[in-house]
Amino acid sequence: MNKNKMDVKIETKKGSMDEWPEPIVRVQSLAESNLSSLPDRYIKPASLRPTTTEDAPAAANIPIIDLEGLFSEEGLSDDVIMARISDACRGWGFFQVVNHGVKPELMDAARENWREFFHLPVNAKETYSNSPRTYEGYGSRLGVEKGASLDWSDYYFLHLLPHHLKDFNKWPSFPPTIREVIDEYGEELVKLSGRIMRVLSTNLGLKEDKFQEAFGGENIGACLRVNYYPKCPRPELALGLSPHSDPGGMTILLPDDQVFGLQVRKDDTWITVKPHPHAFIVNIGDQIQILSNSTYKSVEHRVIVNSNKERVSLAFFYNPKSDIPIQPLQELVSTHNPPLYPPMTFDQYRLFIRTQGPQGKSHVESHISPR
């Protein structure tokens, strides 16, 4: 699909962005009603069900990279760590990081505060109910297509940056420590993201601040989506989150420390990520794929669900300033390696997933310039 066709597709949906097309059903409510079967809206087509896809060997996992020593007091970097990050960004689009500088106690507090929030009765959370215009608040679906297949999850979405979008009144007030913990957590992940961005730039032979400049310098966007996956009566028929690549710049995920669920697509095989204790999972988003002219790859991923255990995960999104056109960097294109993507702002780009919901890698692929 070329760019004009994509624009038309998005325009046809704009009129429906103020409200959801149907009454919202909280997945938590369904899970607590002791269903023996799965409502039809949550049953995935046979081709998308977890049991119909060839799975990787149990020992397979995404790369785990130790960041200790990457940045010394003098700012010198460790070539081995840099090379491992480069290989992971080019070959996987996903990697785990340990010794990343964020305190384990803060990571645990962030996850457990949100777990406590999601354990509140559904009615107590409805005051934070969201709309498809901004997604900010308590939600249970992505996309505004009436009658669409739904994922087995609830979530909470909030803004951390820019500061004018950060509104504590839209953040939960329970548990009592949640706002303080998430504010500190967000600040630490902004710092970590900036460090990783410098590595990504340097590994492409660019100035270390080149990617950051392309994102808007200090005027970037940062937001958090906390995912709650209740127990599912028929997990072999459902998904917690359908296959997609992340539309933003870079994602740093704090996974559940007890239950696996994230799967990454590698060579047409779904690999279940085994989180290392107190590791973050980092993945490349579509905007970095575009900036790098597809040297770095955003990768399709999904979430499976569990009949015996719930899951909670925190996805932190580090994004470009929303009104800056994002396109392949001039230093990375030539007559032999022409730009693959036309300019598009992140505001324009993210309308696709906000209207269509998760759709594999169809958006970034439809954005490729026609030859």
Automatic annotation (TrEMBL):
<dbReference type="InterPro" id="IPR027443">
    <property type="entry name" value="IPNS-like_sf"/>
</dbReference>
<dbReference type="GO" id="GO:0046872">
    <property type="term" value="F:metal ion binding"/>
</dbReference>
<keyword id="KW-1184">Jasmonic acid signaling pathway</keyword>
<dbReference type="GO" id="GO:1900366">
    <property type="term" value="P:negative regulation of defense response to insect"/>
</dbReference>
<dbReference type="InterPro" id="IPR050295">
    <property type="entry name" value="Plant_2OG-oxidoreductases"/>
</dbReference>
<dbReference type="GO" id="GO:0120091">
    <property type="term" value="F:jasmonic acid hydrolase"/>
</dbReference>
<dbReference type="InterPro" id="IPR026992">
    <property type="entry name" value="DIOX_N"/>
</dbReference>
<dbReference type="GO" id="GO:0006952">
    <property type="term" value="P:defense response"/>
</dbReference>
<dbReference type="GO" id="GO:1900150">
    <property type="term" value="P:regulation of defense response to fungus"/>
</dbReference>
<feature type="domain" description="Fe2OG dioxygenase">
    <location>
        <begin position="219"/>
        <end position="320"/>
    </location>
</feature>
<dbReference type="Pfam" id="PF14226">
    <property type="entry name" value="DIOX_N"/>
</dbReference>
<keyword id="KW-0611">Plant defense</keyword>
<keyword id="KW-0223">Dioxygenase</keyword>
<keyword id="KW-0408">Iron</keyword>
<dbReference type="GO" id="GO:0051213">
    <property type="term" value="F:dioxygenase activity"/>
</dbReference>
<dbReference type="InterPro" id="IPR044861">
    <property type="entry name" value="IPNS-like_FE2OG_OXY"/>
</dbReference>
<keyword id="KW-0479">Metal-binding</keyword>
<protein>
    <recommendedName>
        <fullName>Fe2OG dioxygenase domain-containing protein</fullName>
    </recommendedName>
</protein>
<dbReference type="InterPro" id="IPR005123">
    <property type="entry name" value="Oxoglu/Fe-dep_dioxygenase_dom"/>
</dbReference>
<dbReference type="GO" id="GO:2000022">
    <property type="term" value="P:regulation of jasmonic acid mediated signaling pathway"/>
</dbReference>
<dbReference type="Pfam" id="PF03171">
    <property type="entry name" value="2OG-FeII_Oxy"/>
</dbReference>
<comment type="similarity">
    <text>Belongs to the iron/ascorbate-dependent oxidoreductase family.</text>
</comment>
<keyword id="KW-0560">Oxidoreductase</keyword>
